[in-house]
Amino acid sequence: MTAFVVGLTGPMGAGKSTVGGMLRELGAKVLDADALVHDEQLRGTVGYSAIIQQFGTKILDEEKEIDRTKLAAEVFGDPMKLQRLERILHPRVISRVLEARAMLPDDAVLVVEAIKLLEGDLRKACDRVWVVVAPRETMIERLAARGMRPREAELRLATQLSEERFRAAADTVIVNDGDRERTRERVRAAWTELSRARA
């Protein structure tokens, strides 16, 4: 028996980090796949070299680090380029998740927060999939609060799976429609169900 892995996913702006924080409070170890991706893009890593080889130096900032905004502009809207980037990064993220799982006690729950959980092999490393959903207008408002223009938010959401496909892949769906306490109740109920199922 090994630590139990819950993949936590959903569209941008749905509130995965909010739910992840609530799960951390309940005792889960939470890994942010986006933070792992960021680590794998730092200068000196194998990921950094592979990305520069693939996309050129135009995506670098003045410090010769990968500028994530430039890289996003390069790949979003071009499915082929996005696929090439994911082929570089996804295997490295999966390796980091498996390392983290191996270091935890058998009764632990590792939550992996990942926007691209369902599209690649990371899904296979998870015992359960939790999906966070929210109304589209709410997601766009949240993305705008992060400094994203509405048109860019729409474009990013358009490159992701539909809510129907997210829901179809889910073992558990958490609706995060803006009422934090109600969301917390839903997370607590799902956590209790998960604990009961594992027992």
- Helical content (DSSP H or I, runs of 4+): 40-55%
Per DSSP E runs of 2 or more residues, the count of β-strands stands at 5
Give the mean pLDDT.
93
H-E string = EHEHHHHEEHHHEH
Number of domains: 1
- Rg on CA atoms, Å: 17 Å
Let me know the CATH homologous superfamily. Answer: P-loop containing nucleotide triphosphate hydrolases
Distance between the termini: 12 Å
CATH class: Alpha Beta
Q: Helix tally?
A: 9
Spatial sequence of strands, sheet with the most strands: 2-3-1-4-5
Shape: globular
CATH architecture: 3-Layer(aba) Sandwich
Runs with pLDDT <50, length 5+?
Answer: none
Beta fraction: 5-15%
Look at the helices and sheets and give the structural class. Answer: alpha/beta
Task: Write up this protein.
With 199 residues, the chain is α/β, with parallel strands linked by helices. The protein has one domain (4-198): P-loop containing nucleotide triphosphate hydrolases (Rossmann fold), CATH 3.40.50.300. 53% of the residues lie in helices and 13% in strands. It has helices at 16-25, 33-39, 46-55, 68-75, 79-103, 136-145, 150-158, 163-169, 180-198; strands spanning 4-9, 29-32, 109-113, 128-133, 172-175. Strands 2-3-1-4-5 form a 5-stranded parallel β-sheet, with helices on both faces. The radius of gyration is 17 Å and the shape is globular. The two termini are 12 Å apart. The mean pLDDT is 93.
